[in-house]
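User: I'm designing a mutation panel for Methyltransferase domain-containing protein and want to avoid disrupting the core. Could you give me a predicted structure to guide residue selection? Please restate the sequence first so the numbering is unambiguous.

Assistant: Good idea. Sequence first, for numbering, then the predicted structure tokens:
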Amino acid sequence: MRTTTTCLAAAGAGAAVAAWWYTDRAPYPYAQRRLLDLPLPGLTAARIDRILAPRPGERMLEIGPGTGLQTLRVAPRLGPRGRLDIVDIQQEMLDHVARRTADLGTVVPTRADARDLPFPAATFDAVYLVTALGEIPAPAAALREAARVLAPHGRLVIGEFFDRHWIPFGRLRDYAEACHLHVDERIGPTLAYLARLRPCTHLPVAQPSGG
């Protein structure tokens, strides 16, 4: 009886995972926003701080902020003279983040398609997307736009976690090379990684980090 119960429970769990996998939609629907506030293994706040390294006075861009989990952490680090622009295709998400960050005064929401960003070239010191790139149709086009609005000295951080829209690290590296970006640092395995990209220069590509 115990074995049968265990098998039924395992089958139920497997069915739930399969249902989640095949019904997972992009962009992530606002109705399920509470799940977006859950931190993901491997994409910890400490790791994001390390690889993104926000500094006072910088202007940064977050694409696909969701409910603002990263926004709330990054924006205060830019100080009163800094600015964090956030872009999302869903106005509900932008309104949600705007309410959560209203007292900061440095977060500027804009509804836009990541494949056609409404900013001049070389605008931002840093651009970042955490579990968002794979949810954008034609992610290579979105990466090209992110590279376009990045300043020559800037950094572009991509965080990916294994789900239906996950982009393996090897594919990201191919996209980056096509956009004249190189991998400056990587943290974590391909199933849950953070990668920092920079405009190509004479500098050698850094080796992946296991931290």
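For picking mutation sites, this is relevant: The mean pLDDT is 85. The longest strand covers residues 150-161.
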